[in-house]
Design goal:
heterodimer; A: 374 residues; mainly alpha; 69% helix; B: 589 residues; alpha+beta; Penicillin-binding protein 2a (Domain 2); Beta-lactamase; 5-stranded mixed β-sheet; 5-stranded antiparallel β-sheet; 21 helices; 22 strands
C-alpha cells in the first residue's frame, strides 16, 4: 500500500494507520465504478428531459469532492464525537424534514426535497445515519443504567421519524429506517419474544401501507402478480441482465438505459448488468458484501456496546439499501425508490452515505488513542 | 427530540454522572451484555452474507439462464394480448370502400432454451421460410434466451408450414397489422398508424381514441374513392407535364363543406411511411400555406359588392400603376384604361382590385375575411392544419395587396371552403372529412347575401366563358371559376420564375354542387402552353379534365348553358355588364 511511515504523526499519517484501509479502498472502488456508471447511464435520460448530454454526470462529479471531504472529516472523530455530531445532524435533519412537508417542492407526488442554491436537497437522507447512531447511544445507555429509559425514548423517536417519512410519503426510506432500528434493537439483546412481536408489527405496518397507500398497493400487487399491471421497469431490467450475459454488451452499448426512466438512479444496476455483464455485477455485490461483513467483523471485536450498535446499525443501513436496490432490479422484491449506495446518481444520498460510512470508519478505528469510555 | 436532551435527561438522574457510573457494570454485567451483542451481531452478519449469496445466485440465474419466472415471454405475451385488445376500427369512404383496415397476423418467435441443435433447426426453418438470414437466425437459436423474434407477420400458409416442422422451441404471437389497401391514394388524409398501432398522422391520429375505442364500428369519411382517384391521377399528370415540385387538390361539396377528395403531391405509401421523406409526408392541402394571388380577387369583389362599397356598374382607372407607401402595384396583362368591376375580375387587374380593397377599408376587409374563414386555421378534422399567415400590423398597403391575394397566405382547403361560401348562396360551412347524413349536416354561417352570391356565380361563369379561365370549360358541365398566379418569395423579393398557379372551379355554375381546386407548386411552362406557367394555362385545364371525369360520377345531369350575352334573359336577376366596350347581359342562376 501507500508508503506512509508509521512514525508519521501528522493528521493524515495517523488517520492512515488507524483507519480500516481495506474498507476505504473498497468504498473508493465503488465510488469510481459509480461515477463511470452514471456517465454511461445518464445521457439518454438527460437528453430525454432536455438537459445537457452529461448534465447528471457533471452534477454527480460536483458532489464527489464534498462527499469525500465529509467522509474523511467524520472518520477523524472519536466515538464521542460521532455521537455528538449525529445528534446535531439528527435535530437539523428532522427540522428540515418537517419544513419540506410545509414548503418543499413536490416531485412525482412526494414532498421530500428542499431547493438550496440550485440544488435540490433531501433532508430525510441525513436522518438515516444520524438516527442509527442516536438510537445506538440510547440502547447502550439503557443497557448500562437500568434507570435510564433509553429504549422508550428510542421507540418514541423512531415513531416520530417514521411518521414524518410516511407523511412525505417515502415508503422505501421508512422501510430502511425501520429495518435498521429493529436490527439495532435486536443486536442490543432484545428478548426473542419481543423480536417476534416486532416482526409481527412490521408485517402489520407493511399491511397498513398496502391498505392505505395506493402506490404501495399497486407495487406489491404487480410484484405478486406481474399479469395484473404494468411491470415495465422490472421487465426491462431483467431483459438487460439477460442480454448482458457473462461479459456484457460492452461499455456504452446498452439499450435499456434508453427506455428506463430511472436508469441513472434506482435501476443503475441493470445498466451495469447489460453493459458490463455478470462478472462485474458479481464483483460489485462482492464489494458491498466485503464492506458490510468486514465492518461487522471489526464491530464484533469492539469493547463498547455503543460502538457495536452504532457501527452495526450503520452497516445494516448500507447493506440493506444495497441489497434491496439490487433485489428490485432482479425482481426479488417489489419496486421501491432506493438508490444503490455510492453507485447511483443522487447528491443527497451520496453525502448521507459518506456521512454514514465516515462514522463507521471513525467507530472502527484501531489504536488511535482516542478511545472513549462510551 | 434532541440528543442533548437525552443526555441531560440522563444527567438529571440521581447519580451525578450516570453515563459513566456503568464503569463497574461494564466490567460486571456489561460483559455479558457485550457477549449477547456479539452473538446478535454475528447473526445479523450471517443474514447479510446469506442475502448477498442469494443475490449472486439470482444474478447468475437471470444473466445466464434467462429469467426463470418467464417474465420476458410473459411481457411479450401480454404485449400480444395488448395488441389484440388494441384493435383499430376500419376507415371507409362514403360508399363503404376500405381505406384502412387491420389484419391479425402471426409472428414467429423461439424459446432458445428448448433448441437442441441450432444449425439443424435453422436449416429446417429455411426450408419453409427461405428468405431468413441463416447466420442471424442460427445465432438467435443458439443464444439460450427465453424469447427471440424470428420473423414478424407471417401468412397463414407460412404459419401452417412452420407448425408442421413440429419444433417445440418455435411458437407464435398474434399481432395486429394496419393495412392501407389503396396505398398512396389518400395517404395524407388517412395518415398512418405506427408499429405500436397508435395513429401518428392524419385521420388515424385525429381519431385515434375513437378508432381504438369502438373497433367494431368503421369510421366513415366523406371522401369518395372515385373522386380521389380522378383528382390524384390528373394532378400527377400535371405535375409531370409542368415539372412542378408539388401539387394540391380539393373537391368540396359546396352545400355541406364535405371534402370529397383531397390530394397532396408528392405523396407516400402509408403501408411504409418510413420510406417517405419530409416533403412527401407534408400535406400541402391543409398544412401548406400559399399566397394565392388572383383567386383572392373573388373575395375582394364579393365583399365590395356585398358591403355596397361599389356597384356592378362602377369601375376604376387602371392606366397608371398604383403607388402606395414605397410600393408600386402593376397589372400583369395591363389593359391601361378604365375598367368596370366585371372587367377587373375577368382580366384580373391588380390595380383595380387594390383600389377596390382600399375602397372597402382595412376594418371591413378584415371582418369579411374572417367570415370567409381565412384568418384562423381551417376547422378540418386533421392534426396537420396550418395557421394562415396574416399581416401584423395590417396597414393600407396590406389591405391593397390582399385585394389581389398577396400579403396573406392561406391553405388550399381554406381557400376552397371560402370560395364555396361565395357561390352556394353565401353560407360558409366548415370543411369536413367525416361523413354526415343529409339531415345531420352542420349548420353554416352566413357570409354574404344570396344576391351577392348570385352575382359571383355570374362573374365566375364569365371568367371561364371570356376571361383567363377558358381552359377549364367542360362540355356538359358549365364551369365558373377564377385563376390565380402568385410569385413565390425568393431571396430578393418576389421571384418571377417560381410560381404558385391555381384554379378554383365550380360546377355546374348555374346550380353549384362541387368545387374543384387545383394548385400547382412551381410549374414550368411547356410547348403546349407556349412557355406560360400561369394558373389559366396550367391549373385551369386540370380542373376542366377533373370535372369532365367526376361529373358523370356525381349523378348531375349534363346541361348546356348559353354563352353569357347570347341569352337574352329577361328574368329577375339578369345582370347587365360592361365588357370590353359592349354591354352584355348575364343570365341569372
Amino acid at each position: 500500500m501507500i508508503a506512509v511511515p508509521r512514525t508519521d504523526t501528522s493528521l493524515l499519517g495517523r488517520w492512515w494507520w488507524t483507519v480500516d484501509r481495506w474498507t476505504v479502498v473498497a468504498l473508493a472502488l465503488l465510488t469510481g465504478i459509480g461515477a463511470l456508471m452514471v456517465m454511461a447511464a445518464s445521457p439518454p435520460i438527460a437528453d430525454r428531459i432536455g438537459l445537457g448530454h452529461f448534465h447528471f454526470f457533471q452534477r454527480h462529479l460536483v458532489f464527489l469532492a464534498p462527499a469525500a471531504a465529509v467522509m474523511f472529516a467524520v472518520s477523524l472523530l472519536s466515538p464521542t464525537g460521532v455521537w455528538r455530531a449525529a445528534s446535531v445532524v439528527l435535530v437539523i435533519a428532522l427540522l428540515l424534514s418537517v419544513a419540506t412537508l410545509l414548503i418543499g417542492d413536490e416531485v412525482k407526488g412526494a414532498r421530500r426535497w428542499l431547493q438550496i442554491g440550485g440544488f435540490s436537497f433531501q433532508p430525510s437522507e441525513m436522518i438515516k445515519p444520524a438516527f442509527a447512531v442516536v438510537a445506538a447511544r440510547l440502547f447502550s445507555i439503557q443497557r448500562q443504567d437500568r434507570r435510564f429509559p433509553g429504549d422508550l425514548i428510542a421507540i418514541g423517536l423512531f415513531l416520530a421519524v417514521v411518521g414524518i417519512l410516511a407523511l412525505q410519503p417515502d415508503f422505501g426510506m421508512a422501510v430502511v429506517v425501520s429495518g435498521v432500528w429493529f436490527a439495532q434493537y435486536f443486536m442490543a439483546g432484545l428478548p426473542l419474544i419481543w423480536v417476534g412481536a416486532l416482526v409481527g408489527i412490521g408485517i402489520a405496518g407493511i399491511g397498513a401501507g398496502y391498505a392505505l397507500l395506493p402506490h404501495v398497493q399497486i407495487r406489491i400487487d404487480r410484484f405478486l402478480n406481474p399479469e395484473s399491471g404494468d411491470s415495465y421497469q422490472v421487465d426491462m431490467s431483467l431483459q438487460a441482465f439477460s442480454s448482458g450475459g457473462m461479459f456484457g454488451r460492452g461499455p456504452g452499448e446498452g439499450v435499456v438505459k434508453g427506455s428506463l426512466p430511472d436508469a441513472h438512479a434506482d435501476f443503475i444496476f441493470a445498466v451495469v448488468g447489460e453493459e458490463f455483464g455478470l462478472l462485474v455485477c458479481l464483483a460489485i455485490v462482492g464489494l458491498f458484501a466485503f464492506v458490510v461483513l468486514r465492518g461487522f467483523a471489526r464491530a464484533i471485536q469492539e469493547e463498547s456496546l455503543f460502538v457495536m450498535l452504532a457501527a452495526g446499525g450503520l452497516l445494516t443501513q448500507f447493506g440493506l439499501q444495497a441489497l434491496l436496490n439490487m433485489a428490485v432490479t432482479l425482481h426479488l422484491v417489489p419496486t421501491k425508490g432506493m438508490t444503490l449506495p455510492f453507485i447511483s446518481y443522487g447528491g443527497s444520498s451520496l453525502i448521507s452515505l459518506a456521512l454514514a460510512m465516515g462514522m463507521v470508519l471513525a467507530l472502527t478505528r484501531r489504536g488511535s488513542g482516542a478511545r472513549s469510555d462510551l | 427530540m434532541n440528543g442533548r436532551d437525552v443526555r441531560s435527561a440522563g444527567d438529571s438522574g440521581s447519580d451525578p454522572r450516570p453515563g459513566w457510573s456503568g464503569a463497574v457494570r461494564l466490567e460486571g454485567s456489561g460483559k455479558t451484555l457485550l457477549d449477547v451483542g456479539r452473538d446478535r451481531l454475528l447473526i445479523a452478519a450471517s443474514l447479510f452474507a446469506l442475502g448477498f449469496l442469494i443475490l449472486s445466485g439470482r444474478l447468475v440465474e437471470v444473466a445466464l439462464l434467462g429469467d426463470s419466472s418467464a417474465s420476458i415471454v410473459a411481457t411479450a405475451q401480454r404485449g400480444g394480448a395488448a395488441v389484440t385488445r388494441m384493435a383499430r376500427a376500419d376507415i371507409i369512404d362514403r360508399n363503404g370502400f376500405f381505406l384502412a383496415t387491420s389484419l391479425t397476423t402471426q409472428s414467429l418467435y423461439a424459446d432458445a432454451r428448448l433448441v437442441r441443435d441450432a444449425a439443424a433447426t435453422m436449416a429446417r426453418l429455411r426450408e419453409v421460410l427461405p428468405k431468413l438470414d441463416g447466420k442471424t437466425v442460427r445465432d438467435k437459436l443458439a443464444s439460450g434466451r427465453g424469447f427471440v423474434w424470428i420473423r414478424r407477420n407471417l401468412t397463414p400458409r407460412q404459419v401452417a408450414a412452420v407448425n408442421n416442422l413440429g419444433e417445440p422451441a418455435l411458437a407464435f404471437l398474434a399481432e395486429q397489422r394496419r393495412v392501407y389497401p389503396h396505398g398512396a391514394l389518400a395517404a395524407h388524409v388517412i395518415g398512418y398508424a405506427g408499429i405500436d398501432n397508435r395513429g401518428l398522422a392524419g385521420i388515424e391520429r385525429a381519431f385515434d381514441e375513437r378508432l381504438l375505442g369502438a373497433p367494431g364500428e368503421p369510421l366513415r369519411l366523406s371522401l369518395d374513392l372515385r373522386f380521389q382517384h380522378v383528382l390524384r391521377e390528373e394532378l400527377a399528370a400535371a405535375v409531370e407535364s409542368f415539372r412542378a415540385i408539388g401539387a394540391a387538390g380539393v373537391v368540396l361539396d359546396v352545400d355541406t363543406g364535405a371534402v370529397a377528395a383531397m390530394v397532396s403531391l408528392p405523396d407516400f405509401d402509408p403501408n411504409r411511411p418510413g420510406t417517405g421523406d419530409r416533403e412527401a409526408l407534408f400535406n400541402r392541402a391543409s398544412l401548406g400555406t400559399y399566397e394565392m394571388g388572383s383567386t383572392f380577387k373573388s373575395f375582394t369583389v364579393a365583399m365590395a359588392l356585398d358591403a355596397g362599397a361599389i356597384g356592378i356598374g362602377d369601375g376604376y382607372d387602371t392606366t397608371e400603376p398604383l403607388r402606395l407607401a414605397r410600393h408600386t402595384i402593376r397589372d400583369f396583362h395591363a389593359e391601361s384604361r378604365w375598367l368596370s368591376v366585371p372587367e377587373i375580375f375577368i382580366h384580373s387587374s391588380n390595380i383595380g382590385a387594390a383600389k377596390m380593397a382600399l375602397a372597402m377599408g382595412t376594418e371591413r376587409q378584415r371582418a369579411y375575411l374572417d367570415r370567409f374563414g381565412l384568418l384562423g386555421p381551417a376547422p378540418i378534422e386533421l392534426p396537420e392544419v396550418a395557421q394562415p399567415l396574416v399581416p401584423d400590423p395590417w396597414r393600407d398597403i396590406n389591405t391593397a395587396t390582399i385585394g389581389f391575394g398577396h400579403g396573406i397566405a392561406v391553405s388550399p382547403i381554406q381557400l376552397a371552403a371560402g370560395i364555396a361560401a361565395l357561390v352556394n348562396g353565401g353560407i360558409r360551412h366548415a370543411p369536413s372529412l367525416l361523413w354526415r347524413d343529409a339531415d345531420a349536416v352542420l349548420a353554416g354561417v352566413p357570409a354574404i347575401s344570396p344576391r351577392t352570391s348570385r352575382t359571383m356565380r355570374q362573374l365566375m361563369h364569365l371568367v371561364v366563358a371570356h376571361g383567363t379561365g377558358r381552359k377549364a370549360a367542360t362540355a356538359g358541365y358549365p364551369v365558373g371559376g377564377k385563376t390565380g398566379t402568385a410569385e413565390k418569395i425568393g431571396e430578393n423579393g418576389y421571384d418571377r420564375r417560381r410560381l404558385v398557379s391555381s384554379f378554383v372551379g365550380v360546377f355546374p355554375i348555374n346550380r353549384p354542387r362541387y368545387l374543384v381546386l387545383v394548385l400547382l407548386d412551381e410549374p414550368k411552362g411547356n410547348d403546349q402552353t407556349h412557355g406560360y406557367a400561369t394558373g389559366g394555362w396550367t391549373a385551369a385545364p386540370v380542373v376542366g379534365r377533373v370535372i369532365a371525369r367526376i361529373g358523370p360520377l356525381s349523378g348531375i345531369a349534363p346541361v348546356e348553358l348559353p354563352e353569357p350575352g347570347e341569352d337574352s334573359g329577361t328574368e329577375p336577376g339578369m345582370l347587365r355588364v360592361n365588357l370590353d366596350g359592349s354591354e352584355i347581359r348575364l343570365a341569372a342562376f
